[in-house]
Design goal:
Largest sheet: 11 strands, mixed
Structural class: mainly beta
Number of domains: 2
Helix content: under 10%
Low-confidence stretches: 1-31
Strand content: 35-45%
Shape: elongated
Oligomer: single chain
CATH topology of the largest domain: Immunoglobulin-like
Order of helices and strands: HEEEEEEEEEEEEEEEEEE
Radius of gyration: 26 Å
């Protein structure tokens, strides 16, 4: 009986040692430990009929090379430094449709696959001032049609070259289908008016939106982030459609 007890104690001690070693820092990495991160964009501009796809893929902070990113089976071109970028016609995103994003690593291992719905085509219209001539101050009132599949909207003002001294202005739309834009959107930081032409757009987005290197319209701060969270990939992918534009001409002295 004593030998049996001793044997049991030895086996129990050995099991505890093995369990302790298996919980140490020397265990091999699993796919769940892989630190892939992404910042990406799927965007369509109704006014120009142009689509932009842009992704930055890293692992533990280092650019990922050799991966392939496709949308609906079409390859997003790799540029450098973990950046993948394409514009139409190489990849055209149809507003209102579902688009399949697939990320495959160099060893043909699928990192991520998901369907994204692009908000549908819609328009923006300046109601006040009625003649699009802004010369009395006050608010510019813009109505817009709803965009199917949109979760939120952003109003954004783009000054033409003649008015490029104006501050950048963009804001979330609090009331769906209508927004008031204050005089600060047509001024310098000191409050003085900047005469010239201003294009006005509404951006319809899904969960969030992100910027890219040559974006031509301003965005508000504090856009939501981290809407991608899987065991292998984390980050932010924005999906949005920009409306057909309207305009105002600031003639105020």
């Amino acid at each position: 009986m004593k030998n049996i007890i001793n044997t049991f104690v030895l086996l129990l001690f050995a099991a505890l040692v093995i369990a302790t070693l298996s919980c140490g820092d020397d265990r091999p990495n699993s796919p769940e430990d892989e630190g892939y991160e992404i910042t990406g964009l799927m965007f369509h501009n109704c006014e120009e009929g142009q689509s932009v796809t842009h992704f930055e893929l890293t692992k533990d902070g280092d650019p990922v090379t050799g991966a392939q990113i496709t949308i609906n089976g079409h390859t997003v071109q790799y540029t450098s430094g973990g950046i993948f970028h394409s514009v139409s016609p190489s990849i055209t995103l149809t507003p209102g449709d579902t688009h399949t994003l697939l990320i495959v690593l160099a060893d043909e291992d699928t990192l991520y696959e998901e369907n994204f719905v692009l908000p549908d085509t819609f328009t923006a219209e300046v109601l006040t001032p009625a003649n699009n001539i802004y010369n009395t101050g006050g608010f510019v009132v813009v109505d817009f049609s709803t965009s199917e599949h949109a979760m939120g909207y952003i109003a954004t003002v783009v000054p033409a070259d003649s008015a490029d001294a104006a501050v950048e202005w963009a804001d979330y739309v609090q009331t769906v289908t209508s927004v008031q834009i204050g005089p600060e959107a047509f001024q310098q930081t000191d409050g003085s008016d900047v005469r010239g032409d201003y294009d006005i757009y509404i951006l319809a987005y899904r969960e969030t939106f992100v910027s890219w290197s040559n974006i031509f319209f301003p965005l508000p701060s504090q856009l939501p982030t981290d809407n991608i969270d899987t065991r292998r990939l984390e980050g932010t992918i924005g999906v949005g459609t920009l409306s057909f534009k309207d305009f105002v001409i600031n003639t105020k002295l």
